Amino acid sequence: MAQKLENTKKISLVYYYVGLTILALFASFWLLANLGNCMLWQDEAETICVAQTVLTDGIPKGTDGLNFFSQQEGREYGQNYEWKLHPWFQFYWVALFFSVVEASTYTARLPFALLGLATVFLSFFLSLRLWSDRKTAFFVAFAFLSNIMFLLLVRQARYYAPVMFFSVYAVWGFLDILENKRIGFLHFIIASFLFFQSQYLFTLNWWIACLMYTWYFNRARFKALSLAVAIVALPSLPFLWWILDTPYGETLVDGSSQEGVLYGFKRYIGAFFTHVFEPLWIVVFLFFCFFSGVSKSIFKSLQNQPILLLFGLVIVGNIAALSLLVPEYYLRYLCATIPFALLLKGRLAGWMGRRYWAIPLSVFAFLILYKGALFNYCNELSANRYIGPMESIINFMEREAKPDDSIAISFGD
């Protein structure tokens, strides 16, 4: 009997490593293929142009001495053209790559796609750590790789991929602190600092959520967490104050959505449940609990490890912060909610998959077929190169424009 059990464990381990290898190969193709298929769009181009000034000036600037990189009529600059619209990690990350490889559309997007790939695998191993269930970990990875918002955002040369990677890494560091691990303090500090340097608004919400969660569920570690947050916040907040000291920063400080806070909240909530976490998962999960009789064990699991409540708190906090503080609505601003929502989705799939693996797979399949976005994404990965609007405009100007021509554009910057 013992020998049979040992053989079963060995077979299970083989399946695990085979599955992990397939996941690595598929995810690498799925995220890295054909990154240079079309030209950088407006915001990506801004990121790359600013990042290239790091190689010449040491810090991100809004000009290379000849060209100026503004979408806000110069409101992003400091007195010496230092860049103050965004934190600086994304610029140094690109500059690091451009210091060793030749700049191109593919290599401009590659650093961010690699962070997206790392997010999938870090989330996989975070799931194993949290729930000690390989099936759940694979469901989490599939949740990431089947979410069209995640796929499109991490393949862009913009701060979205760093935000998602460092939010997952921050969860890992947070668990280390709760478990009083020796290196946990360092993990949390590094993750929080780089998270802050990717996008400060979401990091501030993350700190608040962690402090609230720890105060309620693990008060013995509250002082240690507070110290870790303070070590990152004390040098970071003056930088934030300096960044916000621009005309554009004043619009963030002063105002909520131009359409109103409640309207902005409704739009973000609607987009979240449409593109990130479909309500069908909740409906199917409730039916599963009712008919399978496992609701008590799931409730007990939540009591023993209520980390999903932290994920929910972060999601609500991010959406509330966007509605209250950000003057314009853009779907991509939901990037910081995506990892937490997909971890939650994967956990629900894992609970159902332990008994009936066909249930979560059926939900995934139905949503993929019903939405159809992944089929369009496959075209993105195809070898057929297409010419987008930006390239068409540039081709026309290169062919027709003369050195003394003026170019009229349809908006004010």
**Rg of Cα set:** 23 Å
Contiguous low-pLDDT stretches (5 residues minimum) are: none
Tell me the major beta sheet. none
- Oligomeric state of the chains? single chain
Which helices and strands appear, and what pairs or packs with what?
Elements: H1 2-32, H2 42-57, H3 89-98, H4 105-131, H5 134-145, H6 148-154, H7 160-178, H8 184-196, H9 200-217, H10 222-244, H11 247-254, H12 261-275, H13 280-292, H14 295-304, H15 307-325, H16 338-355, H17 358-371, H18 373-381, H19 389-400
How would you characterize the overall build of this protein?
The structure is a single chain. This protein is mainly α and 413 residues long. It has 19 helices and no strands. The protein has helices spanning 2-32, 42-57, 89-98, 105-131, 134-145, 148-154, 160-178, 184-196, 200-217, 222-244, 247-254, 261-275, 280-292, 295-304, 307-325, 338-355, 358-371, 373-381, 389-400.
Features:
mainly alpha; 19 helices; about 425 residues
Concise account of the structure shown:
The chain has 413 residues and is mostly helical.
